[in-house]
Write a structure and sequence with these properties.
The first copy, chain A, is α+β, with helices and mostly antiparallel strands and 412 residues long. Chain A contains eleven helices and 21 strands. In chain A, the strands form five sheets. Chain A has a five-stranded mixed β-barrel with strand order 9-10-13-11-12. Chain A has a five-stranded mixed sheet with strand order 18-17-19-20-21, with helices on both faces. A three-stranded antiparallel sheet of chain A has the order 4-6-5. Chain A is elongated.
Chain lengths: 412, 412
């Protein structure tokens, strides 16, 4: 894309009312727009990042047999009363609204209830199971405070997968599969090395639930990491019994602030029983379906990447999520740069081409702020040398690549 | 995809509380789920259709230079008071809610206000214009009645594009470009021949607005068509002055029920003035930006296709939007059908493979109901003849294609 066509403009200063680094950087760079506290819009560059993150997640969910769907946001009281989660005293983040005839409605804070009720119309036999179904859908949560930029908002897209299985053993197998899928996701997003499988309290149906926590000073959570095993504990389960259970020693644990980037829950029959989701087994007996839920917030991941991978000059996007792979700058060599843009894009390489009539200093500074993985500079010197200057966003030193070899350089 | 893996099940009967054909068919076929009156969820097959429709729209919006973004649903009172559209007496389809501290919020019924305010942070000079920005985002509308299945719901995804131009001439050019893009969209979706550019009342800033109306008995609207010119009128503008203006004669007009599948509005400075969206022209003078808006509802289009292209046996999807291009049925020839499935999918052809252990009658009836464009049957006879039976959903007679030629048949 030609940058002269991109409508967003970089801001010189971070907005004064934003305390979080992710929102400061993303707002300055024009990736997002603040609609109000806790509600952001995604502008073209930001939406490209968000879509890339969702596509990585989608691929890993499809790889384990997940079927994508999309559930409604509007929710009726009667459904949630069946699981005792309608009352604001029980679930304290509802946004409630009403039809014109006065019928109360809620905006989905999560989707266990509607997906369980829906699934009861489709699952009846042991032959219908297991089922893994997921969506990318907006959740609305009436958070008292919203202060972590796009990492904790009142309206956000969530990937939530729900598993429906015949018994505990099948559930455990699916649960383990999802855990591995999650690890692949965080690795592909460039967060693998600093994201820990973290044990948390489990509730009625399993000893533990699990979280994935990314180490960051911007995090609202605190975890205790055992570097040797790569395991971590949430503070809720930091006690002698759990340590013994997991084979960890208190003296080896390191305390770190962290961001919860994913979670997995064993739900047992908590939803299937009250909502009538059962199946007939081989003997014709009716059995409740065993469920699990598995969440990841794509925008929170985008915020986390902005927090932990950025540097003093701006954003730093991994190739897997960058809005464009290459940022091409023309420094007074528009014809050659234009040819380079055409050649790279024709080869399927995604390029943001800074074709604007502005200073070299401004182009370099903006390029660092926007944070594409590769910067390619075509200047007057290039016309003499026959080479473009090529620099990785994560490296200080630039190299040179001849124009003939540029396409194949990026096709590697 | 193997049908044995698909969790949705076809229902024998249409639900009794649905009066609209689109919802009856889509519910029976397992494409959608009814969450409540006016709110539907999209199950795997339905989501594939919806995504295909959105991709057609996206391609045409990108082709005219549209930049995709995604705006927040939560909206603050202060913003909409500036344009006098907060009051329920002015806009009567708001869903309102509130933060815990009592601050009133609304759920976006449309997005002129937020996009105009956002754009004011990015547009300042004549060099920044024109801009075309669009999104696919949920609208919430508190409709009194919801009775047309997925064609009029209280929660729906809309493609809304907004144009920002320097002056009336530039606006007219953009507006005409969008009109042509819309025509391409309806043609690609198989609705071109029965969808009419329809003149409607224009409001303050242009003589007419325009609608695109698809002829259908399921429609809530009535239009007057001049078949010779392909133009139509909304009842609002059916008067002698307008007829003279458009060169139409009353006696040539045919009255038809129709579904509004798109609309385009000239907004002038209605939003840019109160919300401070202006630019400096070449002389340094401040001028208000001239706006337009252009809507299409992907789910309404899906419902329209279900209404007008279906037949007595079920749904009929055009290739451009079908969840899968080919429905492959194995009738007691699982090994050969499995090989065929592998060969077709390896060639990039999207196949739903009915590998289930059920009767031929059931497979044929379900295949008609689900409505993929092509049906390929591999049965015991195929093993002798070396040929698969190939039938278009829209045709009665089946043909035969040899297994060697099947991939190339579908690659044509």
């Amino acid at each position: 894309m030609k940058q002269s066509q991109l409508f967003t403009r970089v801001k010189r200063e971070a907005p004064k009312d934003e305390v979080s680094k992710n929102a400061q950087l993303l707002l300055r760079a024009g990736f997002i727009h603040k609609e109000m506290a806790g509600a952001y819009s995604f502008l073209p560059l930001g939406l490209r990042v968000l879509n890339n993150i969702m596509q990585v997640i989608r691929e890993e969910m499809n790889a384990v047999g997940g079927q994508e769907l999309s559930l409604a946001s509007l929710q009726e009281k009667e459904l949630w009363e069946k699981t005792d989660r309608w009352d604001d005293a029980k679930v304290d983040v509802w946004f409630k609204t009403a039809l014109k005839n006065g019928t109360e409605l809620g905006l989905a804070v999560t989707h266990e209830e509607p997906i369980t009720r829906m699934m009861a119309q489709h699952v009846s036999s042991y032959r219908d199971l297991p089922v893994l179904a997921y969506q990318f859908q907006t959740k609305f949560r009436n958070e008292t405070r919203a202060k972590s930029g796009i990492m904790r908002t009142r309206e956000f897209i969530m990937k939530d997968l729900y598993s429906f299985t015949r018994n505990k053993e099948e559930h455990e197998t699916v649960y383990a599969t999802l855990r591995e899928a999650y690890k692949k996701i965080f690795a592909r997003l460039g967060l693998g090395a600093i994201t820990y499988q973290t044990f948390a309290s489990g509730g009625m149906f399993s000893k533990y639930s699990e979280e994935f926590q990314t180490v960051s000073n911007a995090g609202e959570d605190v975890i205790y990491i055992d570097e040797a095993s790569g395991k971590a504990l949430n503070v809720e389960v930091l006690n002698d019994e759990v340590l013994a259970d997991l084979g960890l020693k208190r003296e080896n644990l390191i305390e770190r602030a962290s961001i919860e980037v994913g979670n997995t829950f064993s739900l047992g029959t908590k939803f299937s029983e009250p909502l009538g989701l059962s199946y007939k087994n081989e003997k014709g007996e009716s059995c409740p379906v065993i469920m699990g839920s598995y969440g990841i917030g794509p925008a929170r991941l985008m915020g986390t990447i902005a927090e932990v991978l950025s540097d003093g000059s701006g954003l730093v996007w991994p190739e897997s999520v960058a809005p464009f792979r290459v940022h091409l700058l023309s420094l007074g060599a528009d014809e050659k740069a234009g040819e380079t843009y055409t050649a790279l894009t024709a080869a399927g390489i995604e390029v943001l081409y800074d074709d604007r009539d502005t200073t070299a200093g401004e182009k370099f500074a903006e390029s660092d702020l926007l944070g594409m993985p590769w910067r390619v500079v075509v200047g007057k010197r290039s016309l003499e040398s026959g080479k473009a200057e090529v620099k990785k966003r994560t490296e200080k030193e630039a190299g040179e690549v001849s124009f003939e070899e540029l396409v194949s350089f990026f096709q590697k």
